[in-house]
Amino acid sequence: MLSRASLRVLGCLGALILVLSQGSAQQKKATPADGHDIHVLAPHVVEGVVMGPYHHYCKAVSPEVLECLIYESTEANALMVQVEYMIAKSVTRPTVRLDLWNKHYHDHALEIASGRVQVLDRTPEDAKAIAEAAAQTDGIIFHLWWPHGAKAPNGTVKFPQAISHKDRTDASGPADPKK
Fold first, then answer.
1. Could you tell me the pLDDT band of residue 4, with boundaries at 50, 70 and 90?
2. DSSP string covering the chain, please?
């Protein structure tokens, strides 16, 4: 027969096992915010002014699209001020009108070649592979916190550019309906 002390110990162990098994069954469910762990540093041009460099935290959401949450610093309470989508050129070039591409998009091959982009927190080999993959994309940035430095955004969305942005002149993509 077990003593009261032994029964208490067994009861405590049983309760601990129950709590631990429930904890593992209730592991944190994955969310869309998980995985933004590709850390890139690059400046942007907003309203003709060079700003940043901005800290991009990116992840692949499909084979054709990467998304980046963009902050002005690495502080834990930094505001997300921009979002960038990095979209395969095989998607953007045939589907985005040239006038809209020139206004809102930029070629990551040109931006990376400018030397202004840094892939942080990775080995040099991994950083090179990430940059090579990014060079196959076009980027579109949405600046959400405007005016810059305001206590609250006013609802205006700006479209920053890469410093190295150059308008395209090829005629790929759908036609401009105004022409």
1. low
2. ---HHHHHHHHHHHHHHHHHHHHHHTPPPP-TTTT--EEEEEEEEETTEEEEEEEEEEEESSSSEEEEEEESS--TTPPEEEEEEEEEHHHHHHHS-HHHHHHHEEEHHHHHHTT--EEESS-HHHHHHHHHHHTTEEEEEEE-S-STT-SS--S--B--B-TT--------SPPPTT-
